[in-house]
Each structure stands twice: as structure tokens, then as C-alpha cells.
Write a structure and sequence with these properties.
312 residues; alpha+beta; nine-stranded antiparallel β-sheet; three-stranded antiparallel β-sheet; 8 helices; 29% helix
């Protein structure tokens, strides 16, 4: 694993020196950049633990590891309960909550469909020609997921896939745990989706929203001093394979979404929430997504395939 560490000092409003330490590496199939603010001795120790913590989450949540908790539970579907870890319980809890928040537009039972489309391995290993969207298995329902404490059972035919929600939740966990361990500010960028907590020294959080159709164009700059913030983007301009296949599956049809959206960027208080609503928006398409997100009072930036941009 290749890592890059940089350190920088900043001065806060009370003239105390706060150190900024950053670490860059790859995890969860994506580039990862994590920055911690705080006392030098504390964050120097914490920054080295970041890849370890993400590896533990990936060991639990990965759909592409046969020995992960997620894979074991998917294989056990229809065969009763399994005891699961706290990390996996938090993932399942968040997926179920996301389904409720989005009125099932986010569906955590898409694994069998994704496998049938050729997305059964890390994206970089997908065959160029991939699969077609013909004869896909029937998708399941979140009602087939049964969680009681740390006991999980899946109905026969149910297979879990957190999708990008796992990256958002991983950012939430990094922010929560490293703040609790002594960092005064945390920024976790996993594959371009950003979660923050605390404060970046004396500055506000500033996160640029890039137009996926015109990569050099910044649609907006999210500038805030609130304690917790997440900005997540779902797009069909990346992770495309085969004959125009992409990762956005419409749970209403059970196949690849024919969305006219190229991009849905959501601003929310948690990474997993932002990811869930970004997925929902992509499924709905440009017009319906605006209505839905506005009714839910969710800040968003949408880019249509003709270049039209909407935001609130």
C-alpha cells in the first residue's frame, strides 16, 4: 500500500498552534485522503491508524471478499441467524434506515443483480465487455432483512450490497472515532465523497462540488462552520462498463436505471445519508429528483445529461 503523509501548522483564533496531518492511500477500491487537526503528538499517532481502521471495515463489509462478513451472511441467506460484529450491525442498520428515508429508492439487496451485470469483483477487475442487462435476477426487499441486536438473518434469495453507502458510513465512523480519540477536526475523502467533523483549525470547511460533465468546472463551494458535514456524489460518468452499463439500479424495475441524470451531489449531516439520497436522485431522474429532494429538504446539486444544472 502506498501512502503519502504531509504536515502543516495553522494558527487558530486563540493563538494556539494546531497541527494538520494528512494521509493518502487506497482502500475500498478508491483513493482515500484523510486529514486530522489537533495536537501534534495525538494526531501523529492517530493518522497511522486510519488505514488499519478502514481495512477492518472492508474486511467486514466488502462484497468482493469471499471471507467478509457480508459475503458470509449473503451465503447464509435462508438458513437462519448469524451473530455479527458491531461494525456490520451499524452497516445493516444504516442500510435499512436509508431504505426508509428514500422510500425504498435505495435498496440494499442489489448484490445478485450487480453480480449478474458483471460487477462481482472490484471495479478495476471487471471485464471490459461485461454483461448485458438481460435476464437479471429478481431483486429482493428490505423486508427480507431481519436484525435483532447482533443477530442477523436474511430471507432466501436476499443478498446485501451497501454500494456507495459503505464509503459514506466509513467516513462517518472515521470522523466519529478519531474525534473521540482526540483530533479536533477530521476530514475523510473516500473516492471523492467527503465527510467532516470538528473544525479545520481556524477555518471553515470548504468543499468544492465539481461538474462531472466538465471536470474543471466547479458548480459550487460548500462553505460552513457546522460541526458535521458530508458531501457525496453519485454519477454515471464513472464506473461504466460493458454496453453502457453503470452501477445505478432502479429498484422499481430491477435493472439498470435509464436516468437522465449524470450527477447527483447531496449535502447532508452524515455520509451514509448523503449517499442514500444521491442514489435515490439518480434513480428518479432530473425533474422528479428536484421535487423529491426539495420536499425532503435535502441540499443538492444535479447535472442533467444535456448539461442543465439545478441546485438548492
Amino acid at each position: 500500500m502506498s501512502t503519502t503523509i504531509s504536515r502543516e501548522l495553522s494558527q487558530d483564533l486563540f493563538h494556539n498552534v494546531t497541527e494538520k496531518t494528512s494521509l493518502s492511500f487506497r482502500a475500498m477500491g478508491s483513493p482515500v485522503d484523510v486529514t486530522l487537526w489537533g495536537e501534534q503528538e495525538i494526531i501523529d499517532q492517530l493518522i497511522e491508524l486510519v488505514p488499519v481502521r478502514l481495512e477492518l471495515l472492508e474486511q467486514s463489509w466488502s462484497r468482493f471478499r469471499a471471507d467478509s462478513e457480508l459475503s458470509r451472511n449473503n451465503s447464509h441467506a435462508g438458513s437462519g441467524e448469524l451473530e455479527i460484529s458491531d461494525d456490520f450491525r451499524e452497516l445493516v442498520t444504516s442500510m435499512l434506515a436509508a431504505a426508509t428515508l428514500t422510500q425504498d429508492l435505495f435498496n440494499p439487496t442489489m448484490a445478485r443483480v450487480m453480480d449478474a451485470l458483471g460487477y462481482s469483483v472490484d471495479f478495476n477487475s471487471i471485464e471490459v465487455n461485461g454483461a448485458t442487462a438481460i435476464s437479471l435476477p429478481e431483486i429482493g426487499s428490505p423486508s427480507g432483512i431481519h436484525l435483532c441486536g447482533n443477530l442477523l438473518s436474511l430471507d432466501s434469495g436476499i443478498a446485501l450490497d451497501p454500494g456507495a453507502l459503505g464509503k459514506g458510513l466509513a467516513g462517518d465512523i472515521l470522523c466519529r472515532e478519531f474525534r473521540a480519540a482526540g483530533a479536533t477536526g477530521v476530514l475523510a475523502n473516500i473516492g471523492g465523497d467527503v465527510v467532516t467533523s470538528g473544525a479545520p483549525g481556524a477555518d471553515n470547511w470548504q468543499i468544492g462540488v465539481i461538474n462531472e460533465l466538465a471536470r474543471r468546472e466547479i458548480i459550487a463551494l460548500v462553505d460552513t462552520d457546522i460541526d458535521s458535514l458530508a458531501v457525496a456524489t453519485s454519477t454515471t460518468s464513472r464506473r461504466v462498463w460493458g454496453d453502457g452499463l453503470h452501477h445505478v439500479i432502479d429498484p422499481r424495475t430491477g435493472t439498470v436505471s435509464e436516468t437522465d441524470l449524470v450527477q447527483a451531489t447531496i449535502v447532508a449531516e452524515r455520509g451514509w445519508i448523503a449517499e442514500a439520497y444521491a442514489t435515490a436522485a439518480m434513480v428518479l431522474g432530473f425533474d422528479h429528483a428536484q421535487t423529491f429532494l426539495t420536499e425532503m429538504k435535502i441540499s443538492h446539486y444535479l447535472v442533467r445529461n444535456n448539461g442543465e444544472v439545478a441546485f438548492t
